[in-house]
Amino acid sequence: HTGAAAGVAGVIKSVLALHNGVLPKTLNVDEPTPKVDWSAGAVELLTEAREWARAESPRRAGVSSFGISGTNAHVIIEEAPETEEPPAQPDAGLPAVPALKTPVVPWLVSGRSNGALRGQAERLSGLLERDPGLDLLDTAYSLATTRAALEHRAVALGRDASGVLDSLRALTAQGSGPGVISGVTAADSRAVFVFPGQGSQWVGMGRELWDASPVFGESMVACERALSPHVGWSLRDVVFRDAGDPLWGRVDVVQPVLWAVMVSLAAVWRSFGVEPAAVVG
Hints:
Blueprint: H1 8-20, E1 22-23, E2 50-51, E3 60-66, E4 72-78, E5 105-111, H2 114-130, H3 136-145, E6 152-158, H4 161-174, E7 180-184, E8 191-194, H5 207-212, H6 214-227, H7 235-239, H8 251-271, E9 276-280
Parallel strand pairs: 8-9
Antiparallel strand pairs: 1-2, 3-4, 5-6, 6-7
GO molecular function, one term: fatty acid synthase activity
Domain Ketosynthase family 3 (KS3): 1-79
Protein name: Polyketide synthase
């Protein structure tokens, strides 16, 4: 279970289906259930991948997330309108490099100030000028995952080395351009508490905190008092049970225990001065 990210896999799958123009087959289904009258509507399960060609109306996909904790959501994804872009003029100083199969490559740049940001863009421009055959995707990955994300940020976009270089030069010269997205992080960023659904639990969850954190322990005791009129088991007893105990396999036990642990973790964060701007889950 993907917990707080429930539904994201379906969104990614739908976007890829739109991008590639292919409807993927329905996984783990060899024969549709006879309990559904499949002839009564236009819904069918695909046993093989099928081409998803463009038509007069935009292609759309619906993604449903039926959270095991009770949260239901549905998202409709529509393909972006087609755009016509003029062919890019190759930079005279760069040798021809085959265009990437990806639509566009983002190079992330950041700095403590606007000047530092533009200086970083200038250094990256020099790097690409010296080595025009540089692996753009590998560099983009490194910039996104191995560098500190500082306050002043920008993304230099390009379909090939020439396009990325043009964006970096524009960022260096004036801080903006057709292939540049920039901004400054908000100083008043706030915390959001996410309560996950069933599937994120593990045996022994909360044991150490119960004994080590007075705030967590007091909150768990309060939750146990709130639960006791409605259940036939002890919250502390369940938390301290060993793996393989049948109680851990019961939905009517796991969900209240998860609720108690999340409420108590929230109490710990609040005791440290962290107040959520929103609570979801």
